[in-house]
Amino acid sequence: MSGRDGSAPAGTVGKFREPLAVSREDQPDLGRMTQNSDTIFALSSGRPPAAIAVVRISGPGARFALETILGRVPEPRRASLARLKDPNSGEVIDEALALWFPGPHSETGEDVVELQIHGGRAVIAAVLDVLGRLQRFRLAEPGEFTRRAFENGRLDLTAVEGLADLIYADTEAQRRQAYRHLKGLLGQRAEAWRAQLLEALALVEARIDFSDQDDVPEGLLEPAVAMAGRLAGEISAALADAGRGERLREGLVVALVGPTNAGKSTLLNRLARREAAIVSPLAGTTRDVIEVHLDLNGYPVTLLDTAGLRDSNNPIEQEGVRRTRARAAGADLVLWIEDATRPLADLPKEEFASWWGILNKADLVDSGTKRHTYESQFIGTPVFLVSALTGAGLDALIEALGRFAADFVGAGEPALVTRERQRRALQQTEAALRRAVEEGATTRREDIVAEELRLAGQALGRLIGRVNVEDILDVIFRDFCIGK
């Protein structure tokens, strides 16, 4: 037997009991211990082989798993060296570190075990096989550990989304934004808004439910409506960020566009510092759009290498040109690349929201004369004279791209909104609050004002995962890896 606090009983610390052979008939009916009956387990570290692998267990049977394969339960939240044994054969599987986190003070809110074992494939397979033989134990679904943390109130939905973004963050700026949301940047603000909204709703409903009571004053609608107006203003300010959070999460898109043989693919390879695109002197080599993801001074940037723009009778090349124009039209910035040794092509300036002129092959021309000639035609547009072959002029281009990326996503206060789902929920909240304010100022119908405030509260509840979110949970958690 183990102590009530999860530690091993007196006289067993530092010792190992021989685990008994376990059959399904000998095991407790864990389904009676909790409504969330299954105990889940998974490999939560990287693909083997590795120096160390982490196996996580969560659920009502986590303690039983420790007693079965360790023969004891370690002291809570302290790493304990242990020999893991197969309960049927008694054979030692591995020597590992075991950690015991009794619920509800654990990551998932349930009893949790972490086993830090050696990361060989055979060791991992043996441990998972033993766990899989235990009654009511099963492999976790993708994101199920995090989903249980959400369902047990350890994380709200905005924190779950922050965790997902943290896992997939590629750049320092993305990491900072994701971590802030994991720690409650939006969730805590939404909870504060929700508390104020409930206070306003309580004032209105007090007038509705207790209007015949002498101790309930009549002037409760005005302060409730004023509170709704202030909340609508705060939410409106949070939404007025030009989508900075979404932009940082998704990354800046920069398209390399221009006539054939201008050196677009060579420039892409130089910026990517690898051979990402095929380079050939033959015109029309690039037929489809090639994407390369970069970390540019901590900001995520996706470079698009596109087909050269020219008239062609080749249907494949025509499709490449069509795709080029479509992707370039949706890009955040277009780098229009010209061969500095050839006459300037017609510039399709009207197609692009933002674009710069890039004069490539600077190593083959008189840079001063050529730059002056071309700058007179790129009126009002930044111009960079570079050589994708030698790298000349690229430092200035990269520095300018870094500044553009920082300005594009905003380098000031952290963005509260990072996903379209969050933006829609806040827009619905603001709209309901505005309607409540309007009704309070015109019809003064307390029942209508109360209903609008309730709708605002429901929208905020959906933002943090309090109400009516079952339809979006699967979408959110399917992007998690197994073991998280």
Largest sheet: 6 strands, mixed
Provide the residue-averaged pLDDT.
81
Indicate how many domains the architecture comprises.
Answer: 3
Estimate what percentage of residues fall within beta strands: 15-25%
Q: Which CATH architecture of the largest domain?
A: 3-Layer(aba) Sandwich
Taking the alpha carbons of the first and last residues, their distance comes to: 31 Å
Say which CATH homologous superfamily of the largest domain is assigned: P-loop containing nucleotide triphosphate hydrolases
Number of strands: 12
CATH class division of the largest domain: Alpha Beta
Taken from the alpha-carbon principal axes, the silhouette is: flat
Number of helices: 15
Provide the helix percentage: 40-55%
Structural class: alpha/beta
Strand order of the largest sheet: 3-4-5-2-1-6
In short:
The protein is of the alpha/beta class. The chain is built from 15 helices and twelve strands.
Structure description:
The protein is α/β, with parallel strands linked by helices and 484 residues long. The chain has three domains: 30-140, 2-Layer Sandwich (Gyrase A, domain 2); 159-241 and 417-477, tRNA modification GTPase MnmE domain 2 (Four Helix Bundle (Hemerythrin (Met), subunit A)), CATH 1.20.120.430; 250-409, P-loop containing nucleotide triphosphate hydrolases (Rossmann fold, 3-Layer(aba) Sandwich), CATH 3.40.50. The protein has 15 helices and twelve strands. The strands form two sheets. The chain has a six-stranded mixed beta sheet. A six-stranded mixed beta sheet has the order 8-9-7-10-11-12, sandwiched between helices. A hairpin with a 6-residue loop joins strand 3 and strand 4. It is flat and about 80 Å long. The relative contact order is 0.11.
